[in-house]
């Protein structure tokens, strides 16, 4: 239990509390002391192992080199706020993605594909629809990389700004080549050459200055230079990346966006990264699974199959995956369900570990030491109103000095309800005192899962004693 682990740590010369996060090295030390072998596994490794137990390899194209076929680049637009990222995405979408039917409505599904002609050949490009580096880094934090090329938007009248350089750092960290879109050239005071000069300081040297980065002057507002920008993206992909994938295998990729739709149920946009996704296939996506009931593209049109780099909206999943979750086709529904359930169980376990240290009476002492709290919040539930009042009176009378105090944020007669637990789990958290009552139904389980401490008493003085002890622990040492 945590208390004895803390003791062992003290013997090892590590002063820690039971609620503290410790480094991997300290964990290893603790393991060695207790004769346990500690294996530290990243969530991605853990997932890979899970998939391997089903004989599935995720993340690599199957087969030899000759099975690989060219795929379109996937592009994320980044840059400083107000430099025109959204405008650019909208301009490209409406100019190059001609809806097949008159009046066809384009939909925001998280990504879209356009085509452009380069050297007489039709080439496709996939754009991620959420500009900025937050979505990009959120994906990468989960070990997922969707972006091949970053389009860096810099307003010609404003030049390089903090988020411009942040975007450059993110692109470099991801190993994604940059194409610079010098925007707002229609504006008075626009100075595209100054942008080029500024960016040389960050290692982005324009081709016309002898470097290898494509700079394109554009106006997202007036839709100038967009075709040249698309061409530059294709040329950069051809020159610097070898974008190929095996289209003839079970599809794999990433969830980009998902939500619950009232009529259609779970709606998830996935980016196919390898293989070809087809209607009717069994897929698992994060902890969601199901059979692909239908696929829609960014024009809202049904598609039967999605090759590499194609984003599609998938209908038919049991629940809503998260952005950055991987998706893969598996051989049947049973396998999909098993993988999803194991992931779900794992996530629940991790969640529990994260939250179960949030609110407990023992916690107050260490939290106070961290300067976090000087007030103990309580919710009092009792069997009759008289006992609730008596208990509340007695608890509020506990006096251990001015520095800490008790505040009762909820009280009532009857069993401990889901509502009580939700209230206690809020921020700041509270401890629930149950006097001659029990939790309703499965509420104890719920409380455990949410890390809510419920204390049961049938004698008032016991309740007072324990709360007083906790409060004393909360007292700051006097100097
Ligand atoms: P974001 O924050 O980078 O997504 O920037 P927005 O796309 O929202 O654009 C910010 C503002 O700049 C909006 O008022 C746009 O209309 C304007 N804007 C974007 N592109 C251009 C352009 O090429 N020329 C001019 N004059 N204004 C633009």
TrEMBL record:
Main location as per UniProt: cytoplasm
Keywords, comma-separated and alphabetical: Cytoplasm, GTP-binding, Initiation factor, Nucleotide-binding, Protein biosynthesis
Annotated GTP binding sites: 79-86, 129-133, 183-186
Subcellular location per the Swiss-Prot or TrEMBL entry: Cytoplasm
One cellular-component annotation, GO: cytosol
Top-level taxon of the source organism: Bacteria
Keyword GTP-binding part of the UniProt annotation: yes
Gene Ontology MF terms in the entry: GTP binding; GTPase activity; translation initiation factor activity
Domain Tr-type G: from-to ranges: 70-242
Function: One of the essential components for the initiation of protein synthesis. Protects formylmethionyl-tRNA from spontaneous hydrolysis and promotes its binding to the 30S ribosomal subunits. Also involved in the hydrolysis of GTP during the formation of the 70S ribosomal complex.
Family designation: Belongs to the TRAFAC class translation factor GTPase superfamily. Classic translation factor GTPase family. IF-2 subfamily.
Name of the featured protein: Translation initiation factor IF-2
Protein encoded by which gene: infB
Residue numbers of the full-length protein present here: 37 to 515 of 613
């Amino acid at each position: 239990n945590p208390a004895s682990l803390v003791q062992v740590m003290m013997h090892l010369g590590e002063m820690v509390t039971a609620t503290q996060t410790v480094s991997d090295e300290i964990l290893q030390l603790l393991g060695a002391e207790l004769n346990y072998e500690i294996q530290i596994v990243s969530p991605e490794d853990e997932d890979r192992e899970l998939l391997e137990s089903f004989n599935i390899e995720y993340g690599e194209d199957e087969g030899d080199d000759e099975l690989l076929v060219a795929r379109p680049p996937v592009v994320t637009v980044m840059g400083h706020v107000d430099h025109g990222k959204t405008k650019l995405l909208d301009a490209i979408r409406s100019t190059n993605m001609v809806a097949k039917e008159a009046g066809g409505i384009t939909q925001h599904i998280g990504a879209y594909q356009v085509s452009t002609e380069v050297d007489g050949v039709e080439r496709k490009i996939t754009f991620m629809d959420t500009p900025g580096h937050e979505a990009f880094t959120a994906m990468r934090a989960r070990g997922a990389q969707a972006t091949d090329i970053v389009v860096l938007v810099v307003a010609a009248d404003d030049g390089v700004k903090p988020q411009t350089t942040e975007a450059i750092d993110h692109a470099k960290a991801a190993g994604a080549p940059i194409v610079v879109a010098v925007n707002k050239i229609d504006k008075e005071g626009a100075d595209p050459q100054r942008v080029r000069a500024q960016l040389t300081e960050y290692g982005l040297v324009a081709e016309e200055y002898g470097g290898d980065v494509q700079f394109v002057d554009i106006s997202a507002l007036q839709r100038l230079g967009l075709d040249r920008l698309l061409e530059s993206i294709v040329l950069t992909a051809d020159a610097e990346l070898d974008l190929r994938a095996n289209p003839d295998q079970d599809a794999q990729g990433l969830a980009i966006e998902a939500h619950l739709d009232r009529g259609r149920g779970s709606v998830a946009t996935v980016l196919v990264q390898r293989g070809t996704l087809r209607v009717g296939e069994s897929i698992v996506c994060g902890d969601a699974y199901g059979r692909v009931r239908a696929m829609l593209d960014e024009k809202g049109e049904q598609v039967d199959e999605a090759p590499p780099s194609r984003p599609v909206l998938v209908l038919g999943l049991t629940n809503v995956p998260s952005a950055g979750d991987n998706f893969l086709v598996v051989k049947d529904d049973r396998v999909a369900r098993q993988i999803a359930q194991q992931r779900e169980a794992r996530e629940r376990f991790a969640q529990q570990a994260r939250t179960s240290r949030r609110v407990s009476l023992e916690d107050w002492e260490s939290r106070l030491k961290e300067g976090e709290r000087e007030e103990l919040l309580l919710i009092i539930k009792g069997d009759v109103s008289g006992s609730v009042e008596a208990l509340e009176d007695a608890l509020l009378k506990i006096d251990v000095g001015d520095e800490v105090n008790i505040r009762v944020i909820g009280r009532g007669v009857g069993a401990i309800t889901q509502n009580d637990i939700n209230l206690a789990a809020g921020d700041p958290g509270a401890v629930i005192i149950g006097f001659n009552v029990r939790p309703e139904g499965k509420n104890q389980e719920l409380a455990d899962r949410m890390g809510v401490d419920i204390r049961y008493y049938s004698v008032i003085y016991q309740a007072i004693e324990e709360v007083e002890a906790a409060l004393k622990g909360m007292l700051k040492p006097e100097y």
